[in-house]
Amino acid sequence: MRKFFQFNVLFMSFVLMMFLGSFSYAQDVVPGTPNEQATQEKPATKTLPEGLTANLNTTFFSKYIWRGLELSKDSLVIFPSLTIGDKGFALNVWVDLDTEFNNPPPGKESKANLQETDLTLTYTNNIKPLKMDYTLGWIYYDTDGFYGDTPTSNQEVFVTLAFDFPLKPTLSVYTEIETGEAWYVSLALAHSFEICKDWSWDLGGWVSYLNNKAEDFSALHDGNLWTGLTIPVNSYFSIIPKIQYSFPLSSDSDDRIEANSFNGKDSNFLYGGLIVDLKF
């Protein structure tokens, strides 16, 4: 299964490179804000079928934090992500590459390792009278890298409701369907300020609740505050320096996050890095 996902990552990257080779720019473009479609003086010519979209996104971060839990330590983590969408449907492949994994399974050396590969399928539409976008999705997590030769995986289904109101409130509900009954609910807010021509300062955060019956855990879980600077290079390409701060929301979550940290003592994490984003 792991080789299957690695093959798909390589295949989709090849397809994307073919797409890139098919573009020709009429002239320098003038992108709009992150919440608006980019504009330009002359349209760029492309050969993508009408309605088809593609996004190649790579994140270089100082730490991998997932739902408040520390999944890397003292190493550069790289998250390549490829999304292809059409008519509301989207397929995403996301990879966690840890350049020096510091918590290897017994008998394994600490070295650059493909820790995780996720496959996500989504459908997104909107209810205009409510000013709301909704997304229905399924995620497959392949986490063999964290556990050596022991195959590990999980699956979730989720729904996300995003409202076109000030601060863009977004409610997401995830539930596991493979390893046991667990629910993760988050409420996120975000805002963007245009600070100069085509640049924006973006900030936001979320709070969450976790109910995991296998652990007999039910409490407010993790909060996260983030800020970033979106720097568009042209209509398709942007770079985004970003900083995030993750923290527990209750004493129970503090104990859980500490117990799952690499040294068994940390529950607050400050991390960040650079995101390179290409979309068309």
Characterization of the model:
The chain is mainly beta and 280 residues long. It has a single domain (2-279), classed as monomeric porin ompg (Porin, Beta Barrel), CATH 2.40.160. The chain has helices spanning 2-21, 251-259; strands at residues 53-61, 65-66, 69-70, 77-86, 89-98, 113-127, 132-142, 153-163, 170-176, 182-196, 199-212, 217-232, 237-248, 269-279. The strands form two sheets. The protein has a twelve-stranded antiparallel beta barrel with strand order 1-4-5-6-7-8-9-10-11-12-13-14. A two-stranded antiparallel sheet has the order 2-3. A hairpin with a 5-residue loop joins strand 9 and strand 10 (182-196). The two termini are 30 Å apart.
Topology summary:
Blueprint lengths: L1 H20 L31 E9 L3 E2 L2 E2 L6 E10 L2 E10 L14 E15 L4 E11 L10 E11 L6 E7 L5 E15 L2 E14 L4 E16 L4 E12 L2 H9 L9 E11 L1
Antiparallel strand pairs: 1-4, 1-14, 2-3, 4-5, 5-6, 6-7, 7-8, 8-9, 9-10, 10-11, 11-12, 12-13, 13-14
Oligomer: single chain
Count of DSSP strands: 14
- Total helices: the number is 2
SS-derived structural category: mainly beta
In the CATH classification, which architecture applies?
Answer: Beta Barrel
> How many domains make up the 3D coordinates?
1
What labels would you give this structure?
two-stranded antiparallel ribbon, disordered N terminus, Porin, globular, 280 residues, 12-stranded antiparallel beta barrel, 2 helices, mainly beta
